[in-house]
Amino acid sequence: MREIITTVLTSGGAAFGVAHNHPSGSLDPSEADLATTHRLSEAAETVGLRFLDHVIVTDTAWRRIPHPSADPSHPAGP
């Protein structure tokens, strides 16, 4: 968390998103993915950043991991 938030702040960023791959091909978020998304959302809010998205990527598709500050009008990936 700290490294991501620090990188955004020291780069002069106001908003950020993260993505990572699942080599297994599964688009289902793990418990760690869900916890990380929640923690990133809270950390961003604490320091005044906008957390845009956390995305899982596979060879054939991608999926957003919903988070509390996500815009419900923004559709999820395929």
Provide a descriptive summary of the structure in words.
With 78 residues, this protein is an alpha+beta fold. Helix content is 33%, strand content 23%. It has two helices and three strands, in the order H-E-H-E-E. The protein has helices spanning 2-10, 31-47, and strands at residues 15-21, 50-57, 62-64. It has a three-stranded mixed sheet with strand order 1-2-3, covered by helices on one side. A hairpin with a 4-residue loop joins strand 2 (50-57) and strand 3 (62-64). The longest helix has 17 residues, at 31-47. The N and C termini lie far apart (27 Å).
Labels describing this entry:
78 residues, 3 strands, disordered C terminus, alpha+beta
| Shape label | elongated
Number of helix segments? 2
Structural class, from helix and strand content? alpha+beta
- Computed over alpha carbons, the radius of gyration is 13 Å
Low-confidence stretches: 72-78
Percent of residues in beta strands?
Answer: 15-25%
Rounded mean pLDDT score: 89
Topology, pairings included?
Blueprint: H1 2-10, E1 15-21, H2 31-47, E2 50-57, E3 62-64
Parallel strand pairs: 1-2
Antiparallel strand pairs: 2-3
